Structure formats: structure tokens, C-alpha cells
């Protein structure tokens, strides 16, 4: 996910390619929160106090953060790893391997996650497989067809609970865990399933018509109510410097 301020533009065609080189690296790519290219200003009076502060911030403070998971997110010129915005911990590795790609420009900054206690990888995989199981059976539970209401999600989780009879404990656990994800990400099982895909993308069997309806539902004004959007995941609300606060949350 590429982020720019509303009055900024990309003037280096190699920037996105360099960012993707880091994020798609098979060894360290999944441990990166983001790759950013902080804004710099050319031709500014060297005696201007604001320009001097920028020099100190970028050339001293930002580089000094390299030893503690990298520099913070500064609000623009940043390519995010989507799971980082979802609040997920990075995978655990015994030691940091060397880069496999030959691109480390002096003008880009990377942030590596990993300070928090890692979540169980096996548990994460089981949740993904359970969600996959749910997506295949959600249309036929208890003989009901679940269709989208005009102002609600495509699949109603309360109705799904009524159709649990005949399912084993593993499948019941899957459907009940869906309610916990709903409280975090909102009432869109399709979107929730996509956040858990290890390599990104969408669950199997998802059709374009359903995706369009779900997208309209997710971007609606009231979707984030009673969820953790803006509090623990995504851009953090309630601050005029939401970009810095969001970066702190990621660290």
C-alpha cells in the first residue's frame, strides 16, 4: 500500500521498485512494516531554522533509530506491508539473514517489526484454514442461502450461529472465532479472511460480484463503529499528527 500526502507526487520512478525489492524479499520481506522515502526539500536557505531542523531530523535522528527497529513512519512517501496496518506481529526467525536483493539506496528507510511477543504461527495457520473451511460452507449451512441485505454485510454472523448444528467442534470453533475477528475488523468475513492470507490475495471461490458488494460495505461511513479501526489498527484517529502516532503503534 503506497501512501502520499494530498499535495505530493512521486518524482522517482525507481522508488516503488526499490520498495518492492525489500517487501518481496523471500528472507526478510515478511518482517518489514514499511519502506519509506522521507520528504526532503532542495534549495532551501541553509540558515532557515526550519530547514536546519529538517536536516537534524533526517540525517541524525532518523538514522539514529536504525538500532531500534528502524525509523518511525513520517507520514508520506511510504510503501506499507498490509499486515502491519492490520496490527499483526511479524513472523519469528532465529537470526536475521542477509539481503538477497542488491538494492539498498541511501535515501530509503526501512522499519522492521518484532518487538512484541510473537503470536503462535500454528494458531495463525489453523485460523486461516478454518476461515477457508467456513468460506466453502457458508452458503449451505442449515439449508439456508445467505444473501446480502441492503445496508449490512454479505453474511450475517448471527444467522450463521443458528446453522451450527451438524458441524464438528473444529468447525464450530472456526465460526465462533469469526465473531472475535468481527469485533476487531468489522462485519465483513470476506475482508477478514483476506487479512489472514499468508501471501495476500483473496480466499478461493470469491466471485467479483460479492467483492464489489463487500467493498461498498467496508467503505461505508459506519463500518468502523465498535471496531478497533483507528484505535489499534489502521491509521490512528484523534491526533493532528496521526501519521507519527500510527508509526509508534506499529513499533
TrEMBL record:
Transmembrane in keyword set: yes
Keyword terms, alphabetized: Cell wall biogenesis/degradation, Glycosyltransferase, Membrane, Transferase, Transmembrane, Transmembrane helix
GO MF annotation, one: cellulose synthase (UDP-forming) activity
Lineage: superkingdom: Eukaryota
Coiled-coil region: none
Pfam family, one: Cellulose_synt
Cellular component terms (Gene Ontology): endomembrane system; membrane
Name recorded for this polypeptide: Cellulose synthase
Amino acid at each position: 500500500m503506497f501512501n502520499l500526502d494530498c499535495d505530493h507526487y512521486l518524482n522517482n520512478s525507481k522508488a516503488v521498485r526499490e520498495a518492492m525489492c525489500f517487501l518481496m524479499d523471500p528472507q526478510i520481506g515478511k518482517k518489514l512494516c514499511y519502506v519509506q522515502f522521507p520528504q526532503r526539500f532542495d534549495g532551501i536557505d541553509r540558515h532557515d531554522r526550519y530547514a536546519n531542523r529538517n536536516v537534524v531530523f533526517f540525517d541524525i535522528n532518523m538514522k539514529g533509530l536504525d538500532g531500534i527497529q528502524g525509523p518511525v513512519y513520517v507520514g508520506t512517501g511510504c510503501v506499507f506491508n498490509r499486515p502491519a496496518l492490520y496490527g499483526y506481529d511479524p513472523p519469528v526467525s532465529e537470526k536475521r539473514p542477509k539481503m538477497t536483493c542488491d538494492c539498498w539506496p541511501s535515501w530509503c528507510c526501512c522499519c522492521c517489526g518484532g518487538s512484541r511477543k510473537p503470536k503462535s504461527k500454528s494458531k495463525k495457520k489453523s485460523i486461516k484454514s478454518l476461515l477457508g473451511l467456513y468460506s466453502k460452507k457458508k452458503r449451505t449451512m442449515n439449508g439456508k442461502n445467505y444473501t446480502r441485505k441492503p445496508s449490512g454485510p454479505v453474511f450475517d454472523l448471527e444467522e450463521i450461529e443458528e446453522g451450527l448444528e451438524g458441524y464438528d467442534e473444529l468447525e464450530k470453533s472456526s465460526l465462533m472465532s469469526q465473531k472475535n475477528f468481527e469485533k476487531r475488523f468489522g462485519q465483513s468475513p470476506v475482508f477478514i479472511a483476506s487479512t489472514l492470507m499468508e501471501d495476500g490475495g483473496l480466499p478461493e471461490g470469491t466471485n467479483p460480484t460479492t467483492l464489489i458488494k463487500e467493498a461498498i460495505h467496508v467503505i461505508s461511513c459506519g463500518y468502523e463503529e465498535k471496531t478497533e479501526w483507528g484505535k489499534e489498527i489502521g491509521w490512528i484517529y484523534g491526533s493532528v499528527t496521526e501519521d507519527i502516532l500510527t508509526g509508534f503503534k506499529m513499533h
